[in-house]
Structure to design on (772 residues):
């Protein structure tokens, strides 16, 4: 068998062959169009243009930034700035408008709720949970039970100055005494009061509990803040003991623990960290979670 | 040794063959002109057709409104979530292409493909400025004289002008056409408009002016697919070799026939090649480069008429009839066969499904999203509350009022903090024309109601205008 010959003409198609042959099958030479070659070269030139205009190859420290000064981070920032600029009017409105005005203006409210949602996720959700779901010791913000009030102004004040925040002299500072730890009540007295609190909350007391003693001690020690009927007092942050919501649990042990040594929960004063518009937005967002008035 | 060494003498890259299609007159040329005028008229003028959709809505019959994510086509308005209709259209388009191929071969390539139509238009411009085939060949070979420069510059200017209008017309489908035309004329149009017109001007000019048949030969997948789809009964433009061969000059054939011997009808005049827009020789049989525009039929028919022979030596024909003629049998065209019936049936089926979906689609939609954090909330009176976000989509051009009823959970109360009359029962929501509205709804199961951890709940929205209802099932969670 003779060696394949380059450029041999295929008798059937009349086309030249490349000289490649496998088991008697010869490859036809079907040349690419020349414009394809030029397009290919043009693409190579185009890519060189990219190196020059855009950030491309690494240098010893850093990288070649390119003449256009483009960066994807910069592009995102420019986009964010343009969105801010487009919202500037409404955002400026947020700064000067009162909370009620914002709530009654659908356009401002939309922006406030959107900002509030983001700020809530960044600042509040770690304790209060996403959507204000709450956790033991951290109040649920989606329910209708509010220690310090649920009007817009009361909520704004709570967020601004915090609760028992050491950094803020206008903070909500009332505290429950440590009745057991400080020796104000004895161990069995604490248990009696705890059982009485369960009765207030329409829960079953323990068998054999001294309810008369509990009621007596309650009116002497607790009613000042929590009210004679245990309905609480929002101006003092004293919880309503007759409802179905228990921040630290509702069994005798949990209530006793609170009476013995209350936690007196703390929330930071957010005016130290957030600007007034963000606090307004947060107030409106938290109110929208379901507990607003 | 070297496989592609010095002794290799074939070219690796082939220069494009210069094609100078000659003008031609005849049936198929007339059909092509008519279709060209029709298709281009639709393309250039459709954006200016108005369609009244009511106040506040665009009045352009065909409009792709990217900014507001709407597609308008006369009485049809599509929202982004309805883009699947385009999938149906693409399936229909593919099936129509298959059917047309099974019936008449590459009829799409020859008559309807934009590449064919604009190339035809550009070729006509070239003919008007530089002359017909012979003059153009001579001009191409001629040295660069003032006359040649003048003709070439004029031709490219006209091409660029057409290309600019082509690119411009494309943009008119994406904005209000009269406004955009005015803005372009007064140089007020946005930069993106100019950039896109520039890009499309370039592609039109390059593809229709310079690339022409190269697009069909090297870029387009359809010729490859078509070759795999064709069958012996599909009609394709074909040279009837059984009648034409052996080809010989008129003089020679007269002499041979006088002797009583057989001579083919083809006189090898090359008119079929001269008029071919892709420069192929149809007498070599069906091939990749043949777009089956039928211009060679016109060319051959006019030659046959001049020499007094029967027309349609080149004709829409198929392998089957070629065999039949050679066997001395009469021709038969089987257009109704399993393949064409199947394609037509599928087209009818897909078309019917799409029409049904379009005709019966709801003009308003409701989606319900259950609040996940928290799944439920215990309220101070011991009742259990779940929160839902309901999104209404009003596809009408008018403001619509809806009523929501919450069912499936006996004794549960629904209220919405987002509605002025949020505690009314049933809840009433009005939604602005052509927009969506989300409202939050709190559903509360009173204390003492026996509920499972996981119960069914339904939201039924009723359009107060026409009593159309949409029902969405969801769940209610409890501790």
């Amino acid at each position: 068998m003779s060696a394949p010959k380059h450029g041999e003409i295929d008798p059937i198609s009349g086309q030249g062959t490349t000289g490649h042959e496998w088991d008697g099958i010869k490859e036809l030479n079907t040349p690419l169009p020349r414009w394809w070659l030029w397009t290919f070269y043009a693409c190579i030139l185009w890519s060189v243009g990219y190196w020059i205009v855009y950030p491309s190859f690494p240098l010893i420290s850093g990288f070649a930034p390119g003449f256009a000064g483009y960066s994807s981070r910069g592009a995102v920032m420019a986009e964010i700035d343009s969105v801010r600029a487009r919202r500037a009017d409404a955002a400026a409105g947020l700064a000067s408008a009162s909370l009620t005005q914002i709530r009654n203006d659908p356009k401002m409210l939309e922006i406030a709720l959107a900002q509030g949602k983001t700020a809530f996720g960044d600042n509040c959700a770690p304790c209060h949970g996403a959507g204000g779901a709450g956790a033991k010791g951290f109040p649920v913000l989606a329910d209708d039970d509010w220690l310090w009030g649920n009007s817009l102004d009361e909520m704004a004040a709570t967020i601004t100055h915090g609760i028992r925040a050491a950094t803020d002299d206008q903070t909500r500072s009332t505290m429950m005494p440590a009745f057991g730890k400080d020796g104000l009540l004895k161990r069995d007295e604490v248990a009696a009061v705890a059982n009485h609190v369960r009765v207030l909350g329409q829960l079953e007391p323990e068998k054999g509990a001294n309810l008369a003693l509990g009621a007596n001690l309650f009116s002497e020690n607790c009613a000042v803040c929590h009210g004679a009927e245990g309905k609480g007092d929002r101006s003092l942050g004293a919880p309503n003991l007759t409802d179905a919501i228990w921040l630290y649990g509702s069994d005798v042990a949990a209530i006793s623990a609170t009476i013995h040594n209350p936690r007196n929960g703390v929330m930071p004063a957010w005016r130290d960290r957030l600007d007034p518009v963000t606090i307004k937005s947060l107030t409106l967002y938290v109110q929208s979670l379901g507990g607003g008035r | 040794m070297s496989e592609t060494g010095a002794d290799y003498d074939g070219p690796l890259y082939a220069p494009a063959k210069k094609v100078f299609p000659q003008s031609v007159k005849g049936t198929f040329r007339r059909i092509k002109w008519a279709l060209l005028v029709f298709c281009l008229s639709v393309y250039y003028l459709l954006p200016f057709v108005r369609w009244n959709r009511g106040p506040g809505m665009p009045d352009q019959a065909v409009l792709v409104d990217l900014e507001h994510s709407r597609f308008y086509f006369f009485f049809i308005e599509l929202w982004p979530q309805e883009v699947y209709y385009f999938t149906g259209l693409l399936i229909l388009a593919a099936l129509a292409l298959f059917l047309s191929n099974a019936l008449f071969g590459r009829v799409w390539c020859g008559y309807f493909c934009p590449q064919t139509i604009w190339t035809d238009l550009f070729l006509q411009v070239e003919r008007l400025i530089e002359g017909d085939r012979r003059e153009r060949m001579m001009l191409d070979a001629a040295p660069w004289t003032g006359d040649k420069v003048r003709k070439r510059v004029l031709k490219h200017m006209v091409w660029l002008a057409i290309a600019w209008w082509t690119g411009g017309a494309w943009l008119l489908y994406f904005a209000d056409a009269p406004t955009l035309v005015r803005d372009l004329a007064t140089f007020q149009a946005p930069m993106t408009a100019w950039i896109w017109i520039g890009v499309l001007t370039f592609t039109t000019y390059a593809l229709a002016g310079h690339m022409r048949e190269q697009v069909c030969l090297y870029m387009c997948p359809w010729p490859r697919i078509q070759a795999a789809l064709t069958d012996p009964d599909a009609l394709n433009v074909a040279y009837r070799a059984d009648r034409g061969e052996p080809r010989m000059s008129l003089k020679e054939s007269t002499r041979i026939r006088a002797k009583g011997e057989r001579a083919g009808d083809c006189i090898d005049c090359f008119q079929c090649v001269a008029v071919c827009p892709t420069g192929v020789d149809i007498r070599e049989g069906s091939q990749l480069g043949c777009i089956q525009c039928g211009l060679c039929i016109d060319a051959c028919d006019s030659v046959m008429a001049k020499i007094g022979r029967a027309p349609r030596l080149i004709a829409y024909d198929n392998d089957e009839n070629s065999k039949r003629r050679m066997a001395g049998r009469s021709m038969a065209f089987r257009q109704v066969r399993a393949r064409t019936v199947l394609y037509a049936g599928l087209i009818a089926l897909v078309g019917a499904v799409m029409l049904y979906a379009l005709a019966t689609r709801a003009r308003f939609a409701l989606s319900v999203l259950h609040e996940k954090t928290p799944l439920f909330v215990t309220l101070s009176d011991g009742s259990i509350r779940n929160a839902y976000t309901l999104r209404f989509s009003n596809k009408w051009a008018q403001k619509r009022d809806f009523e929501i009823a919450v069912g499936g959970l006996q004794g549960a109360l629904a209220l919405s903090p987002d509605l002025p009359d949020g505690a009314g029962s049933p809840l009433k929501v009005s939604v602005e024309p052509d927009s969506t509205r989300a409202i939050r709804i709190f559903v509360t199961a009173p204390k003492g109601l026996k509920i499972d951890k996981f119960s069914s709940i339904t939201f039924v929205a009723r359009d107060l205008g026409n009593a159309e209802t949409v029902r969405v099932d969801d769940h209610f969670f409890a501790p």
